[in-house]
Amino acid sequence: MSLLQSSQLKIATAWAAILLSGAGIGWWNAGRHVRELTGQVVRGTTRAAIGFDAAEVRQLGAAGDAAHRGAVEARLRKFKAVDPRIRSIYLLRIDEATPQGVPLAHSGAAPVAAAETAARPGAAAAGLAHVLLTGEPTVEGPLSDGTSDWMRGWALIDDATNAPPRHVLGLDIDAEGWRTETWRAGFEGAFYWWILFGLPFAAWLVMRRQHEQREVIRNLSEAMEQSHSAIMIVDLEGRIEYANRGVCRQIGYGRRELIGREWGEFQTAAAGAGATGEMLATARAGRPWEGEWFSRRKDGTTYPVRGVVTPVKHRDGSLACFVAVYDDVTETKAREEELRDARDAALAGDRAKGQFLATMSHEVRTPLNGIVGFTSLLLETPLSSEQREYVQTIRMSTEALIQLTGDILDFARIESGKLKLDPLACDPRECIEDALDLLAAKAAEKNLELLHRVAPDVPAAIIADGGRLRQVLVNLVGNAVKFTERGEVEVSVAVGAAAGPPAGRPSAERAGHGPPDAAAAECTLVFSVRDTGIGIAAEHHAKLFRPFTQVDDTTTRRYGGTGLGLAICRNLVELMAGRIYVESQPGHGSTFSFSVRVPVAAPQQPNHDLAGLRFALAIGSEPLRRELAALAASWNAEVVTAANAAELAGGSWDVALVEVTETAARDLAGKGSTADWPPDKCLGLVPISLPNDLRASLRAHFRLLVNKPVHHDTLFGLLSGARVNAPTGAPPTQFGFRVLAVDDNATNRRLIKHVLGSFGCTVRLLEDGRQAIHELTANAGDFDVVLLDLHMPEMDGIAALREIRSGQAGSRAQTMWIIALTADAREQQRARAMESGVNDYLTKPLKLQELETAFRRLRSERMARKR
Questions:
Q1: Is the pTM for the entire model greater than 0.70?
Q2: I want to staple 288 with a disulfide (CB 3.0 to 4.6 A). Which of 310, 424, 628, 821 is the partner?
Q3: Would you say residue 402 has pLDDT above 80?
Q4: What span, in angstroms and rounded, lies between the C-alpha atoms of 488 and 805?
């Protein structure tokens, strides 16, 4: 309770005490008045009763005693005449033998009703009964007959013998003003009490209030005087009525010099024309004015101030004056200027940081592109086992450096808030299988099985950033492969419980798929990556997702890494409105799971049916055998399983999938044919890293070769007779395009020449964008496609692209298919390139599969134009 509330409670309690005590005094005074009136009746009745002798009264009522009765009644009338309020006096005889009292004499001519109806003492009225029983005079009433009120007094006349019959005297006295007098007596008592104590208390409260007001005024005056701000009271004409020490301190004038002068005299033209008038006009309209202006000191110098002008009104609403409160903001302005400079420096630093990241991305990825590309080409040539090991080591080291570079750039974009998602329709199955393909070679080196399971109710397509979803999966699967020495790594996806709408998700219309059905517009997908690796203790789970953090130093020394991968995964999952978590125990492997809330772009996959097909599996790995057997069984195929091809001999089946390790492939390489299985009915399951020479030697033993890990839709297409993206190990597609390749790096140009040659393309190599413009202007008809680097001297790719699309290289070049090939993987750069008119965007290091996909899109476009 505040001090003010406590004080108010005490005052209210004091007033209540005064009011209640006054009411009590009034009640007591009313009772005292009643007692006085009752005493008067008792005394009058007693005096009247003393005037009669008991023997005299006993003689009343005898025959022939009329003279005696008349004398008694005359005496009663004399008693009545003493007090004009007395209505009547009468005598009663009460005999216990008779049920009623007998009136003997009375002061008036009319009989007394009370006397006529009085019964014996046990049944008489309360007052009469009290007199008969105690012998003491008493009073009852006020009594009323509907027209008047009176009091009745009773007194006993009998002598000390109390021998029956008994005689009493009754006296009725008028009580018309009884209640009024009683209320008046009560009110007078309360009123005097209230006056006695209430007035001094009220006076004390008034004095206390005045003292408080004087204190408030004094404090307000002191506050105004001691305030650092300038406080000024200005009348309706703009003249100064009051100025505190803050005003005098700011402008250098004394208070007497200021009083009565126009406020506008102390404002400069820099404040704006009519600044004072604008302030006062706004205040006259009843609104406060707030802003900045310039004030002039006594020495003529000016300084900036910031303040507010507030109107003050009388109780009737009319204006009384204006109050201006303002501060010298010279130092504030200087600090603001410093902050602006600091902000500009920070923005410049941020731009420099972005430029540094772009430069780093380009400069690092450019040599890596050459290393990865040429090591890949080198592995396709005849090499000794020692040379092949060296080249593979170079490629692995380069890929690790690429991963490190990508992680650093991604983390920098996340930290700066510049990483944006690009949601489009994608298949979660393809995302998983693409991630497994990237890690398949590393898993094969450690003899690890890569497995994946997709729940039947998972949608065929969702609206999500497929690239970022694959990045999370690649990070998690890569960690699982890194920390697992034997066993398997399994990726699964299922539909989880709904968890509310995804934060900031794109609409289906923007993704190009129209409005999804409201009943099935969204779903929660839960991805899990399980391994049989070393496991993680529970006390280390919390720090797994922190940047630059690993479980311990021994982990870093043994397995390497920067500790950025899981931190990036967490941020990407949170951008996709999900969460990521881990379940793990040392020695029992780990399971990393994450959920994403995404719109559904397409319904479930079509029902795959292989009813009637007898499918044989000869796979040595039991987990993989179980996965593929369950998959084929879900397609209604009749499945036969075996650990090796020899166990299938003599069996009855339509098609078989036979696992071939690299050792088994070398054993089969020297055989022209095999009698263990019919080649036309067998598919070979081979590691993705199997060399091309061994792949070529296996074609005599199998109808087709299938890479591990197996793509489920690919397997279904092969088993159903369709060739859906079947990886046959055939040489790259021959496109025969005429390509103009522009890159300022000589190593990259040599790599591009070899890669394009493998696709059956002819190539013209140039070093910068200006040369490309000249070449296209002169010979645009000699080329089908331009492969254009974006960061080059003289003229970069974006500038060259804009000149080509604007027609400066000729109309033929203006519509030419242009593929950007750059080491800059930033989303911002991709967006700039797409806005400038690029048809496709590839990043370095160059991947043959991505280039082949881009060429397929080009070929499809050209065929569509011809139609």
A1: no
A2: 310
A3: no
A4: 51
